[in-house]
Amino acid sequence: MIPTSHYVVVSLLLFTTGVIGVLTRRNVIIILMSIELILNAVNINLVAFSRLVGSVEGQAFAIFIITDAAAEAAVGLGIIIAFFRNRETVLADEMDILKW
Question: For residue range 9-52, what is the model confidence (pLDDT) as tens digits?
Fold first, then answer.
């Protein structure tokens, strides 16, 4: 049986990688992938501690987060495709189309 601390360490590494990706990258697609890494790190913690406690609430909540992440990715990629067709770039610095 793998101890919970191993899951927490893996989750910490994924979360740190995701935060660094969000803060340092300019490409919006990579930023979305980094957000997915952050959400996966949260899911690992939820499932690990749910298993530690012996309940299924954490696992059920993780399924809702996975569903939300899929919807976020679909909407985000749709917005990025529409923006790319107008501006021909996917850099976050260039996304000022909603400014007046």
Answer: 999 999 999 999 999 998 989 999 999 999 999 999 999 999 99
Number of domains in the chain: 1
Q: Which amino acid is at 39?
A: L
Tokens of 51: 């298993």
Determine what percent of the chain is predicted with pLDDT higher than 70. Answer: 96
Give the whole-angstrom CA distance, residue 31 versus residue 72.
12
**What is the Cα–Cα distance from 78 to 70, expressed in whole angstroms?**
12
> Which structural domain, as residue segments, surrounds residue 43?
4-94
CA dist., res. 39 & res. 46, Å (int):
11
